[in-house]
Automatic annotation (TrEMBL):
Pfam families: Glyco_hydro_28 (PF00295). Keywords: Cell wall, Cell wall biogenesis/degradation, Glycosidase, Hydrolase, Secreted. Belongs to the glycosyl hydrolase 28 family. One of its GO terms (biological process) is cell wall organization. InterPro entries: Glyco_hydro_28 (IPR000743), Pectin_lyas_fold (IPR012334), Pectin_lyase_fold/virulence (IPR011050). Signal peptide: none annotated. This is Polygalacturonase.
Length: 131
């Protein structure tokens, strides 16, 4: 399997990208065109959410209609908040080349984070056939 799709989003969120308590990865420079490397923007957004620099917003929004290309990365804790959420409305895609040849055992990983919730109706495409 090289794609993971899920839709477990509750009725609390509306179909637009304006959610209270969320900060968008695009606010940190993520482009979301499926080609531009958005890894640095995601890590900067993560640091703001995890370390408490986002004014109490502990939920990271990946907006609808965007495709974010990410190189291998680790979202690391511990975080200040006891509850951190990713709302995936857009899409995540791995690079179109074999990144597995490096020192990476995983494309996206989470480490030392309590209370992590990943939700949304987006698609996660690790391009498993590439490697």
């Amino acid at each position: 399997m090289n794609k993971l799709g899920f839709c477990i989003e509750g009725s609390v969120h509306k179909a637009n990208n304006k959610c209270h308590g969320f900060i968008s990865v695009t606010s940190f420079g993520a482009v979301g065109d499926g080609k531009t490397d958005d890894t640095k923007a995601f890590l900067n957004a993560w640091k703001a959410v995890c370390k408490g620099a986002s004014r109490g917003k502990t939920q990271l929004l990946l907006p609808l209609g965007k495709t974010f290309m990410l190189k291998p990365l680790t979202f690391e804790g511990p975080c200040k908040s006891s509850s951190i959420a990713f709302l995936i409305r857009g899409n995540l895609v791995a690079p179109g080349y074999s990144w597995h040849a490096g020192n990476y055992l995983a494309w996206i990983s989470f480490d030392s984070i309590n209370g992590l919730v990943i939700t949304g109706c987006g698609t996660v495409n690790g391009r498993g056939s590439v490697w």
